[in-house]
């Protein structure tokens, strides 16, 4: 079981309030991703849950029990660090066995758990090696192995993929998602990469300056961002946010339209502009349209075969039902 | 580019330095070796004659020799034990964030800058003196009989003096090692359920292994040849209670004026030092790999 409840949790470093009172409930078995720009307090929040930082106020409950003052080891949580934090002088087997040894677990049971974790993570052939002899992805798997042998109530991941190269990152992302499917254990995952958040999460928590901006499923956040910050943060390439005349025409202070919700035409449309850079990805082409009078650049997604050149004049029409309207305070208008 | 030609040129160019260094080492060694086979007494100049292995025989069968060996080992072992254990603990303390950290660190390092004769004299006259020493005052304050450290526990006193000099060195090296320890590892161990002691023995100490090796190797080299501290405090006495191998060689050559036996002792000391070095490298040198 791993239901984690944060009740008015606050964190101050001296005078600075990093996390103002914050409420959040993480259901058992959920894959929750904390996402936000760097310095938004997402790692601090994870460390508060882990118990590596003391909360300045409020209460953390794990499975209904107050865990605010419980030391990290007794919370039944396992953490995977960004730097992996493997013990360099121990073999992979000993690294994975370490939490079990610390719990004085019986040797046969230790071996059984290590073997099964190694099998799940494809580490069986590497058990006798030292971390220094492993590649980045393998080290990452050892770190996960060290977490899963404890059979924790929840896993905490602190930007676990940011030290890996791009190809490996995609692979590990899938492995972690699959692991979650198999173990059905609560996972809390911190990242600044909204692609990781979108692809892995059951529930995304978008944080800014210690505040929760929005909580919801990836598609909820994508389809109906609650405010301008979430609108601009979720989605790649980012949503076009337009102010002024065009927004007033739709009765809003700011309107947002995603690149794929703009219809492109050479003849006519609501707005017009000149094609600048086009990014050809093969399946899609992202066109940067300038001189629309709306914003510096409006990004448009077109099909991969589009035949437009630098300097061509194009017309854009937003799909009316996909338009996001925001008021002067940045909040979404109904 | 390392062509045949440039390599030959390089050899020619480094040769003066190499020849100088070789001469610097080989000539004294050769002369010591030569003297060690001579009957060479400073009180009877001009009577030098070849005596074969006699000098070695006299040196090795001298009862002072075996006690000097034991004393040397106790001295080296005692100082190593105090400085490495104490150094680890001091480094652990100094690694904690605290007020006035910079000044405290400099203060801890400073004994290393005091030259051996001076620090030994300071200990002898200001701490261990049975009449005016600080320790004597302390003993009297508690109503105890002051201890004459240098004559009652001569070897122990010298171990303390030398350890006091070398503790800063060990602390400095081990402190830098502590500072290079990844904090994430400690936090991971904490999450894994390791208490403070487990974290120390399972994470910190293995991390320090290499630094401890360096400390032990370097200190052993210097501690085998401790001399000044003994000369200015106990003069090797009482009897031979605090005579180590270096001091015995000095006593033979310059107190008994028997340069031949002294030289033989010097050669014996070189051989023993090399044996110790080989053992040390075998035992802990593997820590330096990888």
UniProtKB/TrEMBL annotation, chain A:
GO molecular function: ABC-type maltose transporter activity; ATP binding; ATP hydrolysis activity
GO CC annotation, single: maltose transport complex
InterPro entries registered for this protein in UniProt: AAA+_ATPase, ABC_transporter-like_ATP-bd, ABC_transporter-like_CS, ABC_transpr_MalK-like, ABC_transpr_MalK/UgpC-like, Mo/tungstate-bd_C_term_dom, NA-bd_OB-fold, P-loop_NTPase
One Pfam family matching this protein: TOBE_2
Keyword NAD: no
PROSITE patterns: ABC_TRANSPORTER_1, ABC_TRANSPORTER_2
CDD domains, per the entry: ABC_MalK_N (cd03301)
Keyword tags: ATP-binding, Nucleotide-binding, Transport
Keyword ATP-binding attributed: yes
Ranges of residues in domain ABC transporter: 4-234
Similarity comment: Belongs to the ABC transporter superfamily.
Protein name per UniProt: ABC transporter ATP-binding protein
Lineage of source species: Bacteria, Pseudomonadati, Pseudomonadota, Alphaproteobacteria, Rhodobacterales
Automatic annotation (TrEMBL), chain B:
Topology of this chain in the membrane: Multi-pass membrane protein
One example of a Gene Ontology biological process annotation: transmembrane transport
Pfam family, one: BPD_transp_1
Secretion signal, residue range per the UniProt entry: none
Major location (coarse): membrane
Domain of life per record: Bacteria
Gene Ontology CC terms, in alphabetical order: plasma membrane
Keyword Cell membrane: yes
Family according to the record: Belongs to the binding-protein-dependent transport system permease family.
PANTHER family: BLR7065 PROTEIN, INTEGRAL MEMBRANE SUGAR TRANSPORT PROTEIN
Protein name: Sugar ABC transporter permease
Lineage: Bacteria, Pseudomonadati, Pseudomonadota, Alphaproteobacteria, Rhodobacterales
């Amino acid at each position: 079981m791993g239901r984690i409840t944060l009740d008015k949790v606050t964190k101050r470093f001296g005078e600075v309030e990093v996390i103002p009172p914050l409420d959040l409930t993480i259901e058992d078995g959920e894959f929750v991703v904390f996402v936000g720009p760097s310095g938004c307090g997402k790692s601090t929040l994870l460390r508060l849950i882990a118990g590596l930082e003391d909360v300045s106020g409020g209460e953390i409950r794990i499975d209904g029990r107050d865990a605010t003052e419980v030391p990290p080891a007794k919370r039944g949580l396992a953490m995977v660090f960004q730097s992996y934090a493997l013990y360099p002088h121990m073999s992979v087997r000993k690294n994975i066995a370490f939490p079990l040894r610390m719990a004085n677990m019986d040797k046969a049971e230790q071996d059984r758990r290590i073997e099964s974790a190694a099998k799940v993570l494809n580490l069986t052939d590497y058990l006798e090696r030292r971390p220094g002899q492993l590649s980045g992805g393998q080290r990452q798997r050892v770190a996960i192995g060290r977490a899963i042998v404890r059979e924790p109530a929840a896993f905490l991941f602190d930007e676990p993929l940011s030290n890996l190269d791009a190809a490996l990152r995609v692979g590990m992302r899938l492995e972690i998602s699959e692991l979650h499917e198999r173990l059905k254990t609560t996972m809390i995952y911190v990242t600044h990469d909204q692609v990781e958040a979108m692809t892995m999460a059951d529930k995304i928590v978008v944080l800014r300056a210690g505040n929760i901006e929005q909580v919801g499923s990836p598609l909820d956040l994508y389809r109906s961002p609650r405010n301008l910050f979430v609108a601009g943060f979720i989605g790649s390439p980012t949503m076009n946010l337009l102010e002024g005349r065009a927004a007033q025409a739709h009765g809003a202070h700011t309107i947002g339209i995603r690149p794929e919700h703009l219809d492109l035409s050479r003849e006519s449309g609501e707005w017009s502009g000149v094609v600048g850079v086009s990014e050809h990805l093969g399946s899609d082409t992202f066109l940067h349209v300038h001189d629309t009078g709306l914003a510096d650049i409006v990004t448009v997604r077109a099909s991969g075969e589009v035949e437009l050149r630098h300097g061509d004049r194009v017309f854009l029409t937003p799909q009316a039902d996909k338009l996001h309207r925001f008021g002067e305070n940045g909040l979404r208008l109904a | 580019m390392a062509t045949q030609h440039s390599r030959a040129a390089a050899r020619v160019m480094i040769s003066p330095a190499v020849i100088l260094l070789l001469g610097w080492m080989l000539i004294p060694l050769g002369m010591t070796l030569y003297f060690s086979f001579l009957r060479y007494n400073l009180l009877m100049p001009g009577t030098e004659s070849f005596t074969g292995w006699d000098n070695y025989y006299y040196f090795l069968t001298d009862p002072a020799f075996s006690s000097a060996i034991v004393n040397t080992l106790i001295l080296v072992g005692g100082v190593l034990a105090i400085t490495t254990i104490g150094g680890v603990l001091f480094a652990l303390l100094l690694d904690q964030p605290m007020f006035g950290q910079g000044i405290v660190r400099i203060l801890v390092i400073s004994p290393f800058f005091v030259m051996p004769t001076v620090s030994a004299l300071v200990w002898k006259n200001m701490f261990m003196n049975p009449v005016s020493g600080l320790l004597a005052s302390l003993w009297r304050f508690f109503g105890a009989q002051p201890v004459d450290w240098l004559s009652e526990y001569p070897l122990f006193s010298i171990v303390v003096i030398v350890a006091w000099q070398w503790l800063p060195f060990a602390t400095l090296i081990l402190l830098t090692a502590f500072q290079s320890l990844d904090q994430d590892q400690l936090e991971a161990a904490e999450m894994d359920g390791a208490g403070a002691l487990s974290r120390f023995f399972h994470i910190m100490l293995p991390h320090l292994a290499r630094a401890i090796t360096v400390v032990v190797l370097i200190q052993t080299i210097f501690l085998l040849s401790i001399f000044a501290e003994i000369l200015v405090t106990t003069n090797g006495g009482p009897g031979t209670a605090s005579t180590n191998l270096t001091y015995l060689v000095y006593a033979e050559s310059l107190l008994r004026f028997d340069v031949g036996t002294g030289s033989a002792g010097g050669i014996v000391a070189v051989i023993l030092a090399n044996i110790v070095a080989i053992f040390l490298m075998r035992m802990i040198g593997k820590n330096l790999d990888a």
